[in-house]
Amino acid sequence: MSTSSDALTHSHVFLGSDHRRNERRIWLVIALTTVMMVVEIGAGTLYGSMALVADGWHMSTHASPC
């Protein structure tokens, strides 16, 4: 049984047609999360709320792109 090498190849481009739009949306979510993180840490520090400070630092793990 012989097979053509063309039948075994495929494209490695996995970016969809809306890739740029989706990337902008992801960066918007990261920015919103970062803003809320700063607000929570600031308010938690100002009002002495360990829960807000802890949640703000927890949000930093979601806001980091890595």
UniProtKB/TrEMBL annotation:
Is the Cytoplasm keyword given for this protein? no
Signal sequence segment: none
Transferase found in the keyword field: no
Q: Which UniProt keywords apply?
A: Membrane, Transmembrane, Transmembrane helix
How does this protein sit in the membrane? Answer: Multi-pass membrane protein
Q: Which residues cross the membrane?
A: 26-47
GO CC annotations on file: membrane
Task: Say where the protein is mainly found.
Answer: membrane
Give its localization.
Membrane
Q: What is this protein called?
A: Co/Zn/Cd efflux system component
Q: Which organism is it from?
A: Rhizobium paranaense
The beginning of the lineage is: Bacteria, Pseudomonadati, Pseudomonadota, Alphaproteobacteria, Hyphomicrobiales
